[in-house]
Amino acid sequence: MARPTDQAGLTDMSDITTNQPVMPPLKKRRGKVLGNSGLIVASVVLGAIVLMAIFAPLFAPHDPYTQVLDDRLIPPFFIDPEFSDPRYPLGTDNLGRDYLSRLIYGARISLLIGFLTALVSGVIGTVLGVAAGYFGGRVDTVVSFLITTRLSLPVVMVALAVVAIAGGSLQVVVLVLGLLLWDRFAVVMRSATMQLRNQEYVAAAQAVGCSTPRVLVGEILPNLIPALVVVASYEMAQAILLEAALSFLGLGVQPPLPSWGLMVAEAKEFMLFDPWMIILPGVAICVLVLAINLLGDGIRDATAPEGRT
Known about the structure:
With about 300 residues, the chain is mainly alpha-helical.
């Protein structure tokens, strides 16, 4: 039955109006972002760490590689003000290197490893997942077999074995972690692509003669970005933790690079007498990983469909 119209011929919308105000999707999204305190705090903390890492030469009071053996194991100002040194607010390590400068430069290493690992694994997992979800059939079977094979391999054990054989370095750690952490990207992208390939706008693009690469790049991939960002944030945090674990075992980033995991490893001999040497880089790792995870959770909530968080 046609909807009733007024004298001007306009449709009477009184039968479908509700008491809730209509809010545009952009305004809803903005409200989700501003109302998510975790997302705001994580953005501020992560932004501060990124700026500190980018402009490390401006923030670091000393060269992180310079050794002053006469200034070894100076405590931070909050541990022992009497024996602390104003030149070294957070003290020095066993080789007389400024701890604050090494922490600042260590943020570069952690962020670089996390970002590059997420990039490598994201490219591999996204290509495999989108191909499996869009084409299905044998392609899906092959990709599912690869995912199952990857999930059967323990990440830490494989990373330890490969790094022990190839040697520990920044490039090796990034490559190994990137080749081991793509499975979650593939699983999520496969599932999301299966849902998107049946949408009307994809069918419309296929009907007007768009090629398969055009449909994948122009129609499907842009709608995968929110899920891709969430998975990338999780994998970035996991890569930072794995790098710290490898460096702690002596198979990750090698000295004298100021890696936070390596700083923890170098300080384990002084754990009983100078625990602050382990606490400071440990807290830095926890804060960075927590900020990345909170940011990913906030982005997921902000981009989730109405009623789903």
